[in-house]
């Protein structure tokens, strides 16, 4: 069997996501996420400083059932909804932004089964991911297009390099998108799923950045990697429902920026309540009773609550649109993408602001390395630079003023 033989009609006649999450589902998985977050928060700072590949953290996610949260129940998964997944990411981010990112990317990468694979091939992939307990990493950074996919007999050869390949250091499999050079599908983009230990794949452990240190976002080098028919996931197309992957990951970003903000607020609250004295000019007995500090915390809390209300609404809208599967229209897709861009803008700004200004109420002693309050700022500051938020503002403004949508990409 050749790669070409496996490429059937790529029209997504169905995706395995239907309806909206029930309150029972949301409560069940929020509880699971809180338990996992409770474990992660205990040594988040220590693990961050060690800057090691997060194999143990992935196993924690696996044992909690979170890796298969979005896998259809008929294939052994939880059969949950994206609203639930976004909530899980948000909860984990309050404890450990790196692991929240890792899980968010996993959900997006794994869902390539629904968005790229032809309907008749999806069952095989869902079964394999459940049976293998796979965490899905990726190697699709679109601003680093240095992969060469060339036809060779009944398969392909892959060469080149990719930076910022989240999850690649610990994922059982890695999704790659590459432009075909030559052959029947010349000029088209194919998605493949590669095992982490495939011959010719070099994992370069060079992720040494300000924050998100445990996201396993290494560089990858491909040295004449052979791709077979069974590695093919499908075509990357501009079908509206399949392109919802991009708004999906942007909404995941908004949720883990929100989660980081909530985590910083909670940690700041603990520090503030633990201070038994007050500023020497204050009329209050303690810092937490001082109206100046109450005002600052109240402002940050209110802005965070507003972002939460927006992201929660959009999680439900995302599920509702996915339920239409192949009937999703481009205008519907564009409208939701802009709403999610709005959430990306405010979650970025609020996340960075909260993680920064929480120091105003916790004081100079909270900057001690042993306190670790800087972890929230380092994480949100690092990832919020993923794609310039100013371009999201332009995306929103162009749509509002002129009804114009940005060109399709892995950012819009």
Plain-language structure description:
It is a single chain. The chain has 412 residues and is of the alpha+beta class. It has three domains: 134 residues, Orthogonal Bundle (Butyryl-Coa Dehydrogenase, subunit A, domain 1); 98 residues, Butyryl-CoA Dehydrogenase, subunit A, domain 2; 161 residues, Butyryl-CoA Dehydrogenase, subunit A, domain 3. The chain has 13 helices and eight strands. Strands 1, 2, 3, 4, 5, 6, 7 and 8 form an eight-stranded mixed sheet that branches. The longest helix is centred in the C-terminal third of the chain and has 33 residues. 46% of the residues are buried. The N terminus is likely disordered. It comes from Glutamicibacter nicotianae. Keywords: Monooxygenase, Oxidoreductase.
Defining key terms:
monooxygenase activity, alpha+beta, 3 domains, Butyryl-CoA Dehydrogenase, subunit A, domain 3, eight-stranded mixed beta sheet, Butyryl-CoA Dehydrogenase, subunit A, domain 2, 8 strands, disordered N terminus, 412 residues, Butyryl-Coa Dehydrogenase, subunit A, domain 1, globular, single chain
**Largest sheet, strands/sense/barrel:** 8 strands, mixed
Rg of Cα set: 22 Å
Tally of distinct domains: 3
CATH architecture of the largest domain: Up-down Bundle
Shape by Cα distribution:
globular
What's the SSE pattern? Answer: HHHHHHHHEEEEEEEEHHHHH
Residues in helix, % = 40-55%
Integer average pLDDT: 91
- Ends distance: 36 Å
Number of strands: 8
Q: Beta fraction of the residues?
A: 5-15%
According to CATH, what is the topology of the largest domain?
Butyryl-CoA Dehydrogenase, subunit A, domain 3
Number of helices: 13
CATH superfamily of the largest domain: Butyryl-CoA Dehydrogenase, subunit A, domain 3
Query: In the CATH hierarchy, what is the class of the largest domain?
Result: Mainly Alpha
What structural class is derived from the secondary structure elements? Answer: alpha+beta
Question: In terms of per-residue confidence, which ranges show pLDDT below 50 for 5 or more consecutive residues?
Answer: 1-13
